[in-house]
Amino acid sequence: MKTISIALMLACLALGQPARADPMASDSAVLRIIFDQSQNKADPNVPTRSAIADAVLSFWRDFDSKIPRNSPAVTEWLTKELTTTDMERINRVTSTPEYALQELSTLTDDCLSDAALLKQSIGKTTVSEMYAWMRLSGCYGNPHAIEIHLKTASLSKGLYDGPITMVHANLLHSFIAGRIANSLVRQPDPH
After folding, report:
1. Backbone phi, then psi, for 168, in 5-degree steps?
2. CA distance 35 to 170
3. Secondary-structure breakdown of the chain: helix, strand, coil percentages, each rounded to the nearest 5
């Protein structure tokens, strides 16, 4: 039933939308691994989880490479503007492309760190691997905010279209909380 639901969801995304640009290759790679694994009824084993971790790390490296960084002067200006208690100023600054770039840069830095931690944790103790997966799931906890920042910074048309895509976000988040978490709970601790 879940397989049919996932296939139907992917078909709706592909067929129910106007013509769009192809997702980033690294985004498609994560999506493909998760979709292939969803066809498999067995728990995701260490090699499968490692392949997902590799694909996710590649995705975040690719995503990070597409995010321009603010200059030190812009960073200083943002810091100054965000320390005020004037809500009008805060609302103005948080609506700027510069703020969106700062948020995306922070996200990618954190998610690269989390993806690297995950890669090192696969197959180690159940607790350390579960912790790493949960840390990574934070990268996918608010795809709407990521989409808004991408649009505000004029880097993409959204999560599903443009030069930066994140089509796999909701599916991976659900996969971590479901299949991966369940498989880790059921497996004997290797240490």
Report:
1. -75, -5
2. 12
3. 70, 0, 30
